[in-house]
Task: inverse folding
């Protein structure tokens, strides 16, 4: 059987070193790269026979922002279906907004990890998932640094936060497990802010973004001449984090030889750079993050039992968003409030119909994907509130069947907006809150009053004024 032809990628860039790097990375996934050094060459290339076979474009924002966005718009006008990824050193939300409005499919901040670049290419060219809606954006809004700012009422999520908050006050190693996008980095930063080491360094090493033959040097450092290519001495992340906290993300990707050295460090607290004669005694608090349960990997022979034992017993498991869909309305409103603070954007409301659509989706990219989807919808919204029509690809993915608003009993909370996108009257919202509390606490009115922060007499007065039956709904 003949091998399929390589996919063709056009890179618009004038930096030879970066061109070689991206060409090499793209080749791992079967991409053949052609390079255009300027915008005129890129536009001319679209009209050639080779240009008609393009599967994607990567544009380095080496020209001023307005010109880069103008080039994106021109490319998109000529080839509307062609995914365009923009590389930039700028973390400006305004540039992200401008690039997306011009037609960029994704927005990558340099230096971008190899896996992140390949994943962006992979996702942008996957036809099963609508390419204009569910792209993960690297544009990050300012992350909250305390536990109180982490949104969610689901029992599994609150239990994870309780374990993390308790562990934050200790000095021991912590293992945080959860799918990609569930908020592990945000939790790590909250733990660091609440720890006795909050004023000390916090170093994060992503094992998944570093070649396997380099991760040992990144963590432990090396001496000059320790191996071919070691032209200078390198201080490792462990030594840089002395007195503070080191986070090893995607620890499930660590080579097993490095796991053995890390296990020794976790037990003894001393690290020896590659090629050094002596080890260093270090005071480092270590947090290990993994997208996959490490115990499952041990059972499959892909992770060292010795390393798992050295990590210890403090485990924080962050549930996937699909396991706490009742938190989606609160998360959506929280993200929209933060998105509205960004340059070029404004605060937006969201209708119950849109929330029902968001709650019905599985969110394989979890909270990070939800935030990216809301960001994209906010960029293109012309009204004052987001409706289901502002998520066309999600609507297509979920089908056109009717969706009821999230039910209070499912944990979605009280609906604040009417179907027309306007806020409901305060009296109606208050009545729903009281009904919710009566049902949740099975008609125990003393507990209902206590949880609502009012006296029993005030509660009964409100029941009378609002015409609420105090008997809890025991159906089903």
Result:
């Amino acid at each position: 059987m003949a091998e399929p032809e390589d996919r063709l990628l056009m890179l618009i860039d004038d930096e030879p070193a970066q061109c070689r790097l991206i060409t090499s990375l793209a080749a791992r996934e079967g991409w053949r790269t052609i390079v255009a050094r300027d915008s005129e060459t890129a536009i001319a290339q679209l009209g050639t026979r080779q240009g008609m076979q393009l599967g994607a474009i990567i544009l380095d924002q080496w020209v001023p922002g307005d010109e880069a966005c103008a080039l994106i718009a021109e490319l998109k006008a000529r080839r509307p279906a062609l995914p365009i990824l923009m590389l930039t050193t700028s973390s400006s939300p305004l540039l992200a907004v401008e690039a997306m409005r011009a037609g960029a499919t994704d927005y990558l901040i340099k230096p971008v990890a190899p896996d992140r670049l390949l994943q962006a290419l992979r996702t942008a060219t996957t036809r099963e998932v609508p390419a204009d809606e569910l792209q993960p954006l690297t544009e990050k809004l300012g992350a909250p640094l305390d536990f109180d700012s982490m949104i969610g009422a689901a029992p599994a999520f609150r239990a994870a936060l309780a374990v993390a908050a308790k562990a934050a006050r200790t000095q021991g190693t912590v293992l945080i497990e959860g799918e990609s996008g569930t908020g592990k980095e945000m939790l790590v930063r909250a733990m660091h802010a609440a720890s006795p080491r909050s004023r000390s360094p916090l170093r994060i090493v992503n094992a998944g973004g570093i070649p396997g033959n380099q991760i040992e040097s990144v963590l432990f450092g090396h001496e000059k001449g320790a191996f071919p290519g070691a032209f200078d001495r390198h201080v490792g992340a462990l030594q840089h984090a002395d007195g503070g906290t080191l986070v090893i993300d995607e620890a499930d990707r660590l080579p097993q030889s490095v796991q053995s050295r890390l296990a020794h460090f976790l037990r003894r607290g001393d690290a020896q750079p590659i090629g050094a004669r002596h080890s260093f005694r270090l005071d480092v608090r270590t947090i290990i993050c993994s997208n996959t349960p490490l115990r499952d990997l041990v059972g499959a022979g892909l992770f060292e039992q010795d390393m798992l034992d050295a990590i210890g017993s403090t485990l924080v498991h962050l549930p996937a968003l699909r396991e706490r869909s009742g938190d989606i309305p609160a998360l959506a409103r929280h993200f929209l409030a933060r998105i509205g603070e960004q340059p070029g954007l404004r605060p937006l409301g969201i209708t119950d119909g849109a929330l029902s659509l968001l709650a019905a989706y599985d969110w394989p990219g979890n909270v990070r994907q939800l935030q990216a989807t809301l960001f994209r919808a906010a960029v293109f919204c012309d009204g004052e509130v987001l409706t289901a029509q502002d998520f066309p690809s999600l609507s297509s993915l979920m089908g056109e069947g009717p969706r009821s608003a999230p039910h209070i009993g499912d944990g979605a909370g009280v609906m604040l907006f009417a179907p027309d996108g306007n806020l409901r009257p305060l009296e109606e919202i208050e009545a729903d809150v009281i009904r919710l509390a009566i049902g949740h606490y099975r008609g125990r009115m003393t507990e209902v009053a206590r949880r609502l922060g009012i006296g029993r007499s005030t509660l009964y007065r409100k029941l009378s004024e609002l015409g609420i039956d105090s008997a809890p709904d025991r159906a089903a």
